[in-house]
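Narrative progress, year one. The postdoctoral researcher (J.K.) led the effort to move from monomer predictions toward full complexes, under supervision of the PI. The following entry was the first complex the group processed end to end, covering 227 residues in total.
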Amino acid sequence: AAEAEEHDEL
Amino acid sequence: MNIFRFLGDMSHILSFLLLLHKIVGGKSAAGISLRTAEMYAIVFCTRYIDLLWNFASLYNYLLKLLFIGASLTIVYFMRYGPSQKATYNADEDAFPVQYLIAPCAVLGVLINQDHSSPFEMVWAFSIYLEAVAILPQLFLLQKQGEVENLTSHYVFALGAYRALYLLNWMFRFMTEPDYQQRIVWLSGLVQTALYCDFFYHYYQSKKGGLNKSVKLP
């Protein structure tokens, strides 16, 4: 699974 | 940060200012869907729960607070404001939101970026819910046929924000090596697609001048 992209957007 | 995302966030802020101006300033909730307003409050309260631990960006932090505050203010006035309640049309605002919330919750649990993290499930739920949160509002406008001027600008700005985010994701995909956010892409695509019909009628009506009301067949 893709590593959890850190949520840098609103 | 890129220009598309910045413009998207500004368009989102504008949509809130227009809606607050109408509901709090104009003391009228005519043509506005409380169900959509409540779903947006759920979207922001779930997605921005990381306010409690994610201080990565002051810009994001402030806008998250603003979006949660504005969406709760709108719901509050629509539920308890005397003149807002008088102008809110409850029986027309009848879209069965349980058929939107339940599937999004199931999808949030099943399809997310990290199945071991409850926050990722909640975050994915919020993304899916936002994609369909506008449906009660569009449903209400369709029923009423005529869209009041301020309301049409509010819906347009709200639709434009996610459309600009689509450009932002394309830009990031091209400029950042391993950037991929399938969940937001697909949801954002669905969300923007739902506005196409409205965008068309909005453009048709505003061609002749910004103050014409939008007619939906």
